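Data availability (excerpt). The following record was deposited with the supplementary files.
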Amino acid sequence: RGSRGIHLTPLYRNKCSLFLCVVLGALIAALLYNLASRNLDYAGIWFDEAAQFWIAQGLSPYADPFSDPAGLLQVIKFNNRANLDPGGFSILLHWWTMAGKSISMLRTLPFLFLLLAMLSLGLLAWRWTRNRLFAITATALPLCYSGITYFAFEVRAYSMEMAGLAVCTLVFVRSLDKPSLFQAALLGMAGA
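Predicted structure:
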């Protein structure tokens, strides 16, 4: 006698897959909310984060207290002198702090780069497999490594570098199908 395995209709399989995607998406959203609520307001700033902030203000990390912020050229100058991270983060942080300088505002910028990296990984997985469940799982991969989630809230360029790599890979893979000047420019900007 042969085994009578359960045969699922394509419609039922599709509904199950959609249900799993919704559950996994909700789980990822809950994890992100938990991470953000525990870390965005964390007031402990170590020296490198403080130096990054002062560089983004166009000041030396050793400037006198209560010095007035300087302009963009000074940001570039001090980033070159006192920081080995990509200068783009200091420039972005310079503009970002024009909207606010609270600790939660400062930690939001790197967190947004984590979200961009996660989205890029999900889009890559979808592009390669066309499988919703796999794409959502790939989106969650950065949350599985505590080093990434720790650095996702540091006022440093770590999350931006990870997002840049993920975006570069996504744009490169897309450009293999239909090369365009726009995609080449986007790849260059993300790579810089």
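Summary of structural features: The CA atoms of residues 110 and 159 lie 5 Å apart.
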